[in-house]
Specification:
alpha/beta; 4-stranded mixed β-sheet; 4-stranded antiparallel β-sheet; 8 helices; about 50% helix
Length: about 300
Amino acid sequence: MLNLISIFLTFTQIPPPPVIERDYHATVENLRKTDEDANRDPINSVAALTAAIESLNSFTPELAQDPQSLALRQFARLNLARAHLLDGQPERAAAVMDEAIREAMGAQLPADKLGPSLAELYQDRLVALAAEGRASLVVTCDAPCRVYVDEREVGQDPPPLLLGRYRVWVEDVAGTRETLREELALTQADQTYELVFSALELPVAAPTEPSTKPPRIIPRWASLTLLAAGAAVMAAGGAAIGVGNKSEKVGGMVGGAVVLGIGGAALASGVVSLGVDAYRASHARGHQATLSWAVRF
């Protein structure tokens, strides 16, 4: 039985962001030129080719509707894997090939056009990724939405995906809500990952009014006076008991004991009143909580 892993992502009802001019065609042409440079000098073109490929990630809807540019990016990524192989970086070449395989969504890659070494790497990574298994992705929207995975429109319930990282783009069809852009890692085979993309009404926090301090049992100064007086009387009572004991006078000892008891009672009263007031104050502070909301886009 498939287990379900839910990831709740919310968006607010906000005005659309200002239009930002983005030159998609210039970005595609830059990738085309950089890919051609990589054919002539693969090792020295690694950084530029990597950046040119990643720059297309910001144009998800445009790229999804442009099969030729998708094919160009696919070939450029294979070219990048080949450059890493030529540079003696097989681990990086494998990582790039894995991403190319995931982006292809099951389609065959033309790795054989770039030499037998790359074709062999492609077959090896196909077997390795297949052995790891697949996971399912389900996107739930509370309004009509478009779902793209790795710049391909897949719908809200795409076929099971190979494990790994995917770029997920969810946009509101009406265009009135902020687009979700999320990088999602599918790490467990035979699991269903659910993205819940829904509107969230944020509560309006009421102004915080100054809290009323609870009344004290007795004034604080009186409690402190009881403490001081109680301590002093106890000291006097103790001294009287000591003197009576030395003189062996019973009356002096009894009087000292009485004074000692009175002082103890006063001291205890001061301690209790301060303790009760402190508890009331802390209890009142405990109810002055601030309601906060964390919303992730």
